[in-house]
TrEMBL record:
Coiled-coil spans in chain: none
PROSITE patterns registered for this protein in UniProt: PH_DOMAIN
Keyword Ribosomal protein: no
Pfam families: SOS1_NGEF_PH
PANTHER family assigned to the protein according to its UniProt record, in alphabetical order: PROTO-ONCOGENE DBL (PTHR22826:SF146), RHO GUANINE EXCHANGE FACTOR-RELATED (PTHR22826)
Protein name: PH domain-containing protein
InterPro entries in the record: PH-like_dom_sf (IPR011993), PH_domain (IPR001849), RhoGEF_Guanine_NuclExch_SF (IPR051336), SOS1_NGEF_PH (IPR055251)
GO MF assignments: guanyl-nucleotide exchange factor activity
GO biological process, one term: dendrite development
Species of origin: Myodes glareolus
Keywords from the named record: Guanine-nucleotide releasing factor, Phosphoprotein
Length: 172
């Protein structure tokens, strides 16, 4: 509110910095709340690096090997997954539905799968839906078609994944 009613130049730079700092802090706390709700992951989440993004997606799973073609498995009902993007991995979890008072405020996640970023590739455009992209593993043995809730979320995730992959390439 202060920023909205301030004239440009009257400390607005400091107000913007303060707002950005507070929003970063809130995001960090929110991400931590989701992260501690992950059950079933064997290993240390800290070894995956900093959590960059997390959110809910529709996901289809396919394999390049064998007779299954992309169009054959893309028709089936998607899995609802909560994805966590870390510096070193992307984790797929299933949001558990809890009952009782306040259950919807505190989500719980069952760990399903984790892909190391060093072996991940992406395909940014999937024919038929501009909200979809692919995350594939290894030599495309496993392909995850991921549908974001909207195009902005897709673009944000692609930007962050590209950034991680670029940093990896530079290190090599």
């Amino acid at each position: 509110e202060l920023l909205k009613y301030s004239k440009e130049g009257e400390g607005t730079t400091q107000l913007k910095e303060a707002l950005d700092t507070m929003l970063d802090l809130l995001k960090s706390v929110n991400d931590s709340m989701h992260q501690i709700a992950i059950n079933g992951y064997i290993g240390n989440l800290n070894e995956l690096g900093k959590m960059i993004l997390q959110g809910a997606f529709s996901v289809w799973l396919g394999h390049r090997k064998g007779a299954t073609k992309m169009k054959d498995f893309a028709r089936f009902k998607p899995m609802q997954r909560h994805l966590f993007l870390y510096e070193k991995a992307v984790m797929f979890c299933k949001r558990r539905v809890e009952s009782g008072e306040g259950a919807d405020r505190y989500p719980s996640y069952s760990f399903k799968h984790c892909l190391k970023m060093e072996e991940v590739g992406i395909t940014e455009h999937v024919k038929g839906d501009n909200r979809k992209f692919e995350i594939w593993y290894g030599e495309k043995e496993e392909i995850y078609i991921v549908q974001a809730p909207n195009i902005d979320v897709k673009m944000l995730w692609l930007k962050e994944i590209r950034s991680i992959l670029l940093k990896q390439q530079e290190r090599l």
